[in-house]
Amino acid sequence: MEKQILDYVLVPVGLVVMVAYHLWLLRQIIRRPATTVLGINSINRRMWVRAMMEDTSKNGVLAVQTLRNNIMASTLLASTAIMLSSVIAVLMSGGHRPIGEVYGDNSKLGFSIKFFSIMVCFLGAFLLNVQSIRYYSHASMLINVPSNIHRRSKKGSKDCMTSAEEYVWMTVNRGSYFWSLGLRAFYLSFPLFLWIFGPIPMFVCCVLLVFLLYFLDVTFHFGSVFSANSLHEEEDGLVNV
What pTM value is reported for the model? Predict the structure, then answer.
């Protein structure tokens, strides 16, 4: 019973640390997108879509090829996720085999919960990457619609996005967000896998993973590529999505 207490304490604390970090990251993306990698990528995708749709006869092949590369990346992750889910299902059906001395819950029920958590994690990654493929496939067709067909200029704004450009940008963005979420599901599988060897490795992995993700998600300088006014306009557009 004393060993099981560690599972009841360290596992929820580790998951809370992960959830708290991603809630903080979501807040940063919404309020200060230029300080996060995801926010900056969204701003750059908006400019990319606008540039590709300005001359579809010249940039159409490049745009479709770029989206196809993203589809291939999502397909690879989706195939890997469903394959690993099948492997976990086979291990669950094979019965309980104790793994040496595990300082934690080593019961049959405990191991079933651990393997089931890993399987759910990979199934979630599969579904998220499938949604990413869906949006990228839609965008590969929509991005070849010439923007001058739907151009509707606003007073005092020559660089405004048309309704078609805005929709394509939102579609590409959603595909990228689903891909990022699918990748996060793969990251989450690491502490869940280490949970098999006890709650202490799982908790340590959660803390280390949060530190690593912080340096991958946060940018400390945006550079001087864009002017302050254009950056402000792109941020406003990102918040309104």
Answer: 0.81
